[in-house]
Amino acid sequence: MNDLKNLKTEEYFLSMGPQHPSTHGVLRLILKLDGEIVTGATPDIGYLHRGLEKIAENRAYIQIIPFTDRLDYLSSMSGNLAFVLTVEKLAGIAPPPRAEYIRVIMAELNRLASHLIWLGTFSLDLGAVTPFLYCFREREKILDLFEMITGSRLTYNYMRIGGVAADLSAQFIKDAAAFIQDFKFRVAEYEALLTQNPIFLARTKNVGIIKADKAIAYGLTGPMLRASGISRDNRRDFPYAIYDKLSFDIPAGTVGDCWDRYAVRVREMRESAKIVEQALSGLPEGNFKTKVPLSLKPPAGESYAPVESPRGEIGFYLVSNGTAKPYRLKIRTPSFCNLSIISHVIKGWKVADVVAILGTFDVVLGEIDR
Amino acid sequence: MDLAQDVFRYVEKMPGGNLILTTTDSLFNWAKANSLWYLLFGLKCCAIEMMAAGASRYDLDRLGLMFRASPRQTDLMIVAGTVTAKMAPRIRTLWEQMAEPRYVIAMGSCAITGGAFFYDSYAAIKGVDEVIPVDVYIPGCPPRPEALIEGILKLQEKIKKESLTKR
Amino acid sequence: MTEEKKISREELLATGENIKAQYNFLVFITAVDYPERNVIGMVYHLRSLGNRDTLIIKIDLPREKPEIASVAGIWPAAEWHEREVFDLFGVNFLGHPDLRRILLPPDWEGSPLRKDYTKPGVIKRPETIK
Fold it and tell me: Which domains, ranges and CATH numbers included, belong to chain A?
């Protein structure tokens, strides 16, 4: 026993990623380890950097919408929505009320699909395989709904400047309402598997705590910020579309550990289901798109319209010089800002906990690297 | 595909005995084609469709495909997403770590030509075949899981035509 | 309420210290390249989480030698945003704790988001919408 105490160990570096099952894409973490304890971490990103901001400078506004799909590919609708809102704000275009409702329905269904993928992969990271299969079962149903209207499963290219690309069909409204009814019971099913599961609790309770002041200082948004006890949500703080007409709660955590981030997202799923229900029942008749010229030339100036994506605040900072192409398009993505805190959070935890902590960050590398 | 029928296409029963004859080629090819373990490695949107193909509704397991996290244990690499200048050398390394016989599927427009990022992108590589050899191309942005399954069936056909002596 | 402020680069740190109690949330930092004015314009987008006010600070930097003090000490979130601007625009942040390329490989040459950046092999998309 004494020999073990005197045993000299060396610090060494472990490169986790860019190909690693738990980094959710091509993130690379260079971990400095003392035995199994992480003493330092350097994230290395950019393995998916395609230069979207440069591409956007050579595209007409309508041609940029498909690229916003490929930012946060788990919730393409939020990317679409943030971009069209920004252009509409600058050009002074008001979409018809029906389009506003449709946008909210689609964005919230997409939030459900995104949170389901997160829940499935996160539980898979922790060794629970069943929730993964359950979550994908429900997600496929949401994708079927999207496919009915937009024709695609993942990259929708659905929002348009001044409305949406296609109207909702009666079949969609019926199926979506039925899905939401069913979904409420499904959330309970996931919770039965995880929420009070002792293994799950041991892996997440008090693991990877982010204090509220740190969360603000590092610019965290979305469920990451709310789990630390700060109730900030762009849907309520800077209401867009019809969110100010809907009633929904904004769940917040208290401790800011992995479990809180889990609980906030699961409760958000219930809230999103509530929002879809309200929007479906209030859906007005009318046009789904206003006429906007194909080659739209917004006035010179700049605009920024924050949108609450499943991961946090996504926003496009648009600088226009009055031509048909943006002069500069900066994309503020939630995952990029959320990830910047990672090296501070995982310090002192074991490698296995890094997987759990990173899982609750819910990063999408497409929008980190752009 | 009915596995038992597949076997009987290759083996001949000797009358009156329990001896079966086949060529090593068809035996190995049959085994190789029906246990393609793929590398758990996703780049972008297509990786989500790849996950969906492995999950509840599409269930790749029934084709003998299982994901492995280590390239040393895999036969198949599905390149699902845009290959960038920073990632290309890593893909090459991963491919080199895989043991022969190894196969590559380029899934989606980005992996085939650069797709939406063909024009104006300073960082995207115009197709993964600039980095590693590709066996099957699956178009789509992203391809549906059904398309991925079709691509895998095509790859299985290709494997079954291979020969151990000539490769 | 959105407020916009144009200041000189020497004033940045003092201004930041003054307003950091109110504008405690850094939304993003970015830059815009204006070759005809020979300027790189820095944009700091700040928000007050208390009353949701927005403050946009703009600073013009000379294009040849863009240098500015780092605000990573005031808003830690700035660390990655400044690395990104350094990577894509070549703006040098003085006093930054870890100024390296963040998105592009370390051996990359040039600042791609500058308007005059060119790279062999990049094909320009033909115009389809006039």
Answer: 2-369 (1.10.645.10)
